[in-house]
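So, can you check this record?

>
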Amino acid sequence: MSESQAAVRPTAPAKTEPARKAVRSKKTTRRRTKALATRPGSKTTKILDLLRRPVGASVKELMKATAWQPHSIRGFLSGTLKKKLGLKVDSFQRADDERAYRISAK
């Protein structure tokens, strides 16, 4: 092999077009319609009805309505309602020193 052949290295093919930019999806619109489109009689609907009351609902009330454990209730509030459905869930202390939650306007 000659010196001129050893100096030539194979190169990668040139890029033909620039990378495409990511397009933002309209998740917030879908989230709001999901919140309104819950099935009647489902546990999600029961929880939403309780949380929409002016006095809100305690974990005990939500447990009684759904037969869920307290950690499942709190996970549903933070994961499904806040993150997936995009609802604002307020937590407050009632006069009887019980923690309660309610859905508030944004």
In short: The first helix runs from residue 3 to 7. The radius of gyration is 27 Å. The chain has a mean pLDDT of 83. The chain has one domain: 27-104.
